[in-house]
Amino acid sequence: MSKINQKTLREKINLKGIGLHNGKEVNLTIKPSKQNSGIVFKRVDVKNNNIIHANFKNVVEPVLCTKLINDNGVSVSTVEHLMAAFYGEGVDNVLVEVDAPEIPIMDGSAVDFVDAIRSVGVEEQNEPRKFIKVLKKVEVFDGKKFISIEPLSQDLIIDFELIFNNPLIRTRRKEFKLSNDDLTPIYNSRTFCLYEDIDSIKRMGLAKGGSLDNAIVVQGNKILNDDGLRNRHEFVYHKILDCLGDIMLSGNRIFGLIKTSQGGHALTNKLLKKFFSDKANWSIVNFENIENQNQNSYENPVAIGA
Ligand SMILES: [Zn+2]
């Protein structure tokens, strides 16, 4: 019999890419770290107060990406695809060193992060992994947009409805179940934007590094990228990837059912803030003496109190 324990990387990873927002080259080093330390970012281009914890309480301006900031105003942007890779690959504790104010965008998906994690492998640590178990339904509305989380036994389901005023993207709805569904198409799905929005995004000083190499660009009912889509559900799958990454900012994996229509970084962050504001909404569980057959499929958690 084995427990489900926390994991870190076997060895460090080095990755290079460009920043989506500033368009500059970014070096990323992900290092193993000790149990119970969580996911921690370090801005190595900043001398002092350069540690930023991957926590939903540190999220600011979640407009086009998720940005984290520490008490001294040092920030790191575009963490969500990397956080989603940590969620799905079972990484609990690492130090992420970055020499720029943002994580490199890579190809606009999580696939390079996942490949890098798999190339070194993960290592089990001694402490059991903790999970958040949802006890009560919590929901957040913003006009016609909403997101909710409700109890679900030992699994995570994200039921995502995307509504886009574009003839190609249209309305798409997909349900993703962590224990059953293959994460590959979620990891592979790239961020996307409308061609007509590019000017206004760039005028805001954002997406200087954006290109067809790291985003799907849609004009009317055409995809401007030569190779088209990687899978039929790439738009909504990317939104599920973002949601998974943003949930990982709770500091733990969650057992719950998330439903959203037109969700995004800001709405997911509002949900986490509301959910964790009342201790009656959740409990923390772990697994002792459970045979671990599939790291994303769990049975019989042991309550250890909030
Ligand atoms: Zn994204």
Indicate the topology.
Elements: E1 5-9, E2 13-18, E3 25-32, E4 39-43, E5 51-53, E6 59-60, E7 67-69, E8 75-76, H1 80-89, E9 94-98, H2 111-120, E10 122-128, E11 131-134, E12 138-142, E13 145-150, E14 156-163, E15 171-177, H3 184-188, E16 192-194, H4 198-203, E17 216-219, E18 222-223, H5 234-247, E19 253-261, H6 265-276, E20 282-286, E21 302-303
Parallel strand pairs: 4-9, 11-19, 14-19, 16-17
Antiparallel strand pairs: 1-10, 2-3, 3-9, 4-5, 6-7, 7-8, 11-20, 12-13, 13-19, 14-15, 17-18, 20-21
Helix pairs in contact: 1-2, 1-5, 5-6
Bound molecules: zinc ion.
- CATH class of the largest domain reads Alpha Beta
Small molecules held by this entry: zinc ion
CATH superfamily placement of the largest domain:
lpxc deacetylase, domain 2
- The secondary-structure element order is EEEEEEEEHEHEEEEEEHEHEEHEHEE
What this model shows, in words?
The protein has 306 residues and is of the alpha+beta class. The protein folds into 2 domains: 5-128, 2-Layer Sandwich (Ribosomal Protein S5, domain 2), CATH 3.30.230.20; 131-303, lpxc deacetylase, domain 2 (lpxc deacetylase, domain 1, 2-Layer Sandwich), CATH 3.30.1700.10. It is built from 6 helices and 21 strands. Strands 11, 12, 13, 14, 15, 19, 20 and 21 form an 8-stranded mixed beta sheet that branches. A 5-stranded mixed beta sheet has the order 2-3-9-4-5, covered by helices on one side. A 3-stranded antiparallel beta sheet has the order 6-7-8, with no helix packed on it. A hairpin with a 6-residue loop joins strand 6 and strand 7 (67-69). The longest helix is centred in the last third of the chain and has 14 residues, at 234-247. Residues 289-293 have low confidence and may be disordered. Bound molecules: zinc ion (ZN). Residues 80-81, 191, 238, 242 line the site of zinc ion (ZN).
